[in-house]
Amino acid sequence: MSDTYTIKNLRAVHDSAPEFGLSDVQEARFANDELEAADTGFSFHALKPGRRQAFGHRHEQAEEVYVVLAGSGRVKLDDEVLDLGPLDAVRVSPAVVRAFEAGPEGLEVLVFGPRRKGDGELLPGWWS
Fold first, then answer.
1. Residues 127, 52: contact at Cβ < 8 Å?
2. 47 domain-assigned
3. Which residues span the domain enclosing 48?
């Protein structure tokens, strides 16, 4: 361990999806604390084939970038739905409501942006 860097395999980061009854939909691994990131929000999401996130969300201040690592799917940004594939990167302004849906092979996404505790608003059933 070092004071200047942290290495952590994202599959070893705690999956919080089961705690919220979402294990049949996705994995949600929020790595901020385990990477000891003070200013950067960072997470890994793996949606199961054909599944859609149970809620949309938006922020007051935090801009986020999403990068598709594997699979394919769609993202809904406010009222627009766009197709995504490997290595597509999507920058989302704070106030835009967003949610993801996996294609037939699933969808793995890295998410990062500034860490703003309490900045997010969850919108259950937003993309129905």
1. yes
2. yes
3. 10-117
